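Notebook, p. 212. Picked up where the previous page left off. The plan for this session was modest: take the two constructs that came back from the sequencing core last week, fold each one, and keep the raw output in the notebook itself so nobody has to go hunting through shared drives later. Recording the first one now, exactly as returned: residue sequence, then the structure token string.
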Amino acid sequence: MGCKDNMLVQDVSTRWNSTYAMLSRLQEQRWPVTATLSDPAVTQRGKHYLDLKPEQWNLIEELNQVLEPFESATVFLSGQQYVTLSALPHLVHKLKKNIQSPELETGPVSSFQTHATEQVTERWQGLLEFTPESPNITVLAAALDSRFRKLKFLAAEEVVKVQSAVQAMALGAKQQVRHPTASEHGADSTAQDSPPAAHAKRTTSFLDSDSTTSDEEQDEEQQLLQAVHQEVFMYFGEHPLSKKENPLTWWEKNAARYPTLAELARSLLGIPATSTPSERLFSAAGNIVSKKRASLSPEHADMLTFLHCIKVLL
């Protein structure tokens, strides 16, 4: 009948999107299934009622249209070889839009469509909340993703808050590089100076000090602030990258232009959106350390798990 040679799939309550997998495969195999159930040589006449009615097939077709965006979103967010966290706000926005877009005829699917939209909105209502006191890591990652740097999913005043937070983070990272922590200074001075020597050093420093040193430090801080501000201003002023492009490749090419922001992007864009990669790792380790290989040392188990991960990435 020109259909793919695939088996039917059973819904499993513990597997994500398995209902969609079952219904989409059933729709794909509709005519072979119908022919099998209506063939007296294969199916007893008393069981011909097992075939679905036309309105039920229409129900499955429309339900698949609503469930397909969930499958696409789940597959994308479960990835581990590309950036996922920064795409979450854009993806949730698109998910709600795609759920509502099909014009459906059947009442039950329309009701499910409305209910699914309400559930997605309720579950992700705090996704875009952002305050300077408690920055949203997801929104910050989206800001440092060159595809979503315009933050079109936020209001204008919220965009300004996010940009200010990014600038503050960049300034803090820059200052940390230029000035080590006070505890490190304290440890070094304690180790190098005995109490009398330290006292003499402070006295000499006090007698020789003037306003020149403080002025120079203020000038340096002002230059540092201006450099960071210029870097942030230029970054957010650029045209966003295409959604199909890889932001990691873009940062690799532009790290010299935005050195401070590149370090922030390195720390934020590597965060996975879901726990799926770690779950895969647990499953792989469980297959490696089995009952028949219970004598593996922790070091060897680590090595074998690492090699498994490298094989998957390659």
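Okay, moving on. Second construct, recorded in the same format:
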Amino acid sequence: MPMFQPSRRDGVVGYEGGRDGHVLDLDTAVKDGVLGGVGGGVVGAGVEKLDLKKMIEELDLSEVPSVFICPISLEPMQDPVTLCTGQTYERSNILKWFSLGHFTCPTTMQELWDESITPNRTLYHLIYTWFSQKYLLMKKKSEDVQGRASELLETLKKVKGQARVQALKELQLVVAAHATARKTVIDEGGVAVISSLLGPFTSHAVGSEVIGILVNLTLDSESKTNLMQPAKISLMVDILNEGCIETKINCTRLIEMLMEEKDFRSEVVSSHSLLVGLMRLVKDKRHSNGVLPGLKVLRTICLHKEVRALIVSLGAVPQLVELLPALDPDCLELALFILDALSTVQEGRLALKECSNTIPNMVRLLMRVSECCTQYALSILWSVCKLAPEECSSVAVDAGLAAKLLLVIQSGCNPVLKQRSAELLKLCSLNYSDTIFISKCKLTRTIQ
């Protein structure tokens, strides 16, 4: 068998017969565009101090030239070495391969006639040059972004009217796109400056941009407390009801952030206008991207028991029940959680009973989506059937509840769910003789 000899160029192991079938050196790589369009030449002496591992980690690039990737780890190489077969690997990876008793080339599976490994300095310098140039470009952009964020904060302290709106628009774009800009805004006290622009006389144009910036920042406890002032919350609610879909979503995200604060008071969300705005967002068929954020906030609000009756009074129960068939699994789980929470108050149970689609929709969801959804649906059915056993049990049985309950009991799900299913099955059977119950449920074959 002819032996493959790695080519040498100026005493450095090349890459002949490798991935591209030619010697891989700096000149060839630049000519062929391996460096991804970055200017040719090796970075200066000052850049040589940069740590390759740190650059690779901080850049975290999704697209790297394939020739830089170790075939074993599929990660960029930091210390490339070449085998006698001409294939190049990360040093630590190929040494681990050898330590496992393999004496073959992992890529070609050829037996090695020479177990030595040779540092591929040409490829190392290619990798180092490429990552260095990307890294320095990232650092320069980062510094430019930080400086621009500082300038915009200073501008906001001085300008008013349309100039303020424009400054806020630009700052929103910057903080949404760059983590360094977000850090600059926070470190330089920008949260207080931006939050101070929200008030009873703030225009919706300014308020929308301010909210768009705040949802991209990490707010501390003091900032959240400041934003929970009645005048600021009132403005957020107004914008939620009247803004564009992006602004509405930003409002819900900001309100959700505020509700995470341990000192949050339920009266802050005991607002008719807020709940109406959230329900409109959830029901908006033109903008489905608002459903999930709206349901998330409603779910959090429902954790406050004192607000549940108010939510029911706004007609939330039938509206949510009608939405169920069209929701995706994540939204469905949130909607069922909300309905289950509302079923813990008398007004909620009555509303669920009066909605003609409650029982059919809940029966349909049993054992269909997830165990969590089954749990909520079962809890809702229990609340409704306990409220009016004769009326609701017959409707549930006609909808196929008994067969679904038997499936739950026979499944490998939570024992608590099995117990609740058994109790509900017993409750549904009380109004029937055994023969009639079996015939109504079409379970003769199953029981036999």
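Notes on construct two before I forget. Residues 1-27, 33-48, 443-448 have pLDDT under 50 and may be disordered.
Flagging for discussion at group meeting.
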